Structure formats: C-alpha cells, structure tokens
Amino acid sequence: MASWCGDLAAPPRLLVAPRPSDGNCQGNVLSLRHPRSDEETGYLFIDGQLHEFNWFKERFGSWFLGDYVCEDGSLYYCTVVDPIFILLPILKAARMSNGKDPGKFRQLDEILYVEGYPGYQHLMGIAGNHIDLVCEVKEVANVKFFRLDDSKVLSWLCCKVHNLKEVFPKLGKNYAAQGEKELLKDAVQIIREYLNDEPWLTLLCKKLQLDIKEIIEANKTSEASFCAENSPVPLRPAEEKLGSSSTRSSKGRPAKKQKAEVESKNIKDMFRRVTRKGT
C-alpha cells in the first residue's frame, strides 16, 4: 500500500475528486480508523457521501499541470465507500458484548464518539440512515438506541457479495468465462479489504460455503504481485550504455523494448487505497 502524505501542499499530487454540488462548499478530509487495519486513514466527506482515496501509478510517468511538471506520475482517485464498512468496528466495540451476552443498546452520538477521531461526528447523518441495516433498533421516548446484530451483518455482507458477482461478467470476457464459485471468491476477496477475518470473513465464507484459506492465500498472492510490478527496477551495468550488446539488435540499432501486456491485470490490482501508514 502507498503511504498517505499528511502534507498535501508539498509535493503536489494529482487528485480526481467530485465537485461539491454547492460551489460555496468544500469537502472535508476526515481521519478515521481503517476498518481492517485499524490504522488512521484519510477519507473525503463531500455532499453527504464518504469517499476513499485510491492510488494508481505506472512505473514511469509525470503530469503536466499548466506550466508546471509534477514529477510524481501517480493518480489519486476518490471513490464512494459504503459507510457501514467504516462503522462496523465501531459498532462492534460499542455493544460491549461478552460471551453469550448480546451486548448493550447505545445512542448514535455515544457510538460515534471515538477518542482522538472527531471525524466520526461528521458521519452522524449518514450513519443514522444506514446502520439499521446491520443493527437492532429500539426507540424509547422518541430516542433511538442501536445494537449491532451479527445476523443482519451477515445478510448485508452476502448482499454485497452477490451484487459484486453480478457486476463482474460486465467487466470483460475473463470474468464472463468464470464459474459461479470463482466469481464468489473474487467478490469476497474485494470485500475482505474492508473486514476483519474474525468474525466477519469466517462467517461469510461459512455462509457461502467457501474455503477461507483459499481467500486469504489469494489475497497474499495478489498483493505480492502488485508490489513486484510497481517496485523500481535497478539499472544493470549492461543497460547503462546504449552501445552495449544487450541493448542493440543484430543490425546495430537499439533493440525495441518489449511491449507490456495490455488488459492482463486483475481489476482489483488497478487501484489501491491510500493510508497514512503503509503496510
């Protein structure tokens, strides 16, 4: 994963983000806990929607910004993220369940108070409109109380997986040729980036009759491949001079560089979230 730079002024970065519907308003970059790693992570909150920062970079590249050349050819891109993913760890901790005790009902403002992370208070509105999908709700004297419900979380996760599975065949012939089980695995691998393995991934794989070990190993392979593709390649002595034999064809002209394969990357590897601390 790439590291999120805390100082956005230097060096410059190219970010593709939605414009606010109101020209006088600006989005807020919120510091929240990442739902899987628990690390401090930046999210863009704009027009009542939460966006995560993604990162993509070719091995070589720069950006021309007016008369300025930005040496960092990385592309930072915002995409909408379901706030329930971000809130799951907070909701789980808030119910304070112990063994067979299902835990306590809490008011939303209590749940969203996380010491050191005032950004959660900005999510009050969208949280109130979404968390009933994964929580039991009780209303006392016109005041609502919430408690995370594992069965609701599992149903919601299954819905997410099946929605992803339906989208995959539209992305290309490689996905269209895959079987039902392979599509489910790919969907769960993407969902896993926002979940703790215990208990959610374990429950999800059990419900979908998938081998959790295969999911975990597939993620490790994908991440290793991504890091290998994007790590800088050291210049070998034979490549330093144009006149060396390894860089010339049999006719004495510089040899053509082999073209990179196109349309061969997995869609999951095209973008990576940006976090404050890389892993």
TrEMBL record:
- Cite the record's Basic and acidic residues compositional bias ranges: 258-272
Q: Which UniProt key words apply to this protein? A: Nucleus
Name the CDD domains for this protein: RNase_H2-B
Instruction: Name the Pfam families for this protein.
Output: RNase_H2-Ydr279, Ydr279_N
GO terms (BP aspect): RNA catabolic process
Q: Which domain of life is it from?
A: Eukaryota
Listed PANTHER family: RIBONUCLEASE H2 SUBUNIT B
Q: Does the keyword Nucleus apply?
A: yes
- Organism ancestry: Eukaryota, Viridiplantae, Streptophyta, Embryophyta, Tracheophyta
Disordered: where is this region? 230-279
Where does the Rnh202 triple barrel domain start and stop, copy by copy?
28-82
Identify the stretch annotated as signal peptide in this record: none
Identification of the protein by name: Ribonuclease H2 subunit B
Main localization of the protein?
nucleus
Compartmental location: Nucleus
GO cellular component annotations of the record = nucleoplasm; ribonuclease H2 complex
Keyword Zinc among UniProt keywords: no
Q: Which InterPro entries match?
A: RNase_H2_suB, RNase_H2_suB_wHTH, Rnh202_N
Ribonuclease H2 subunit B wHTH domain sequence ranges? 85-174
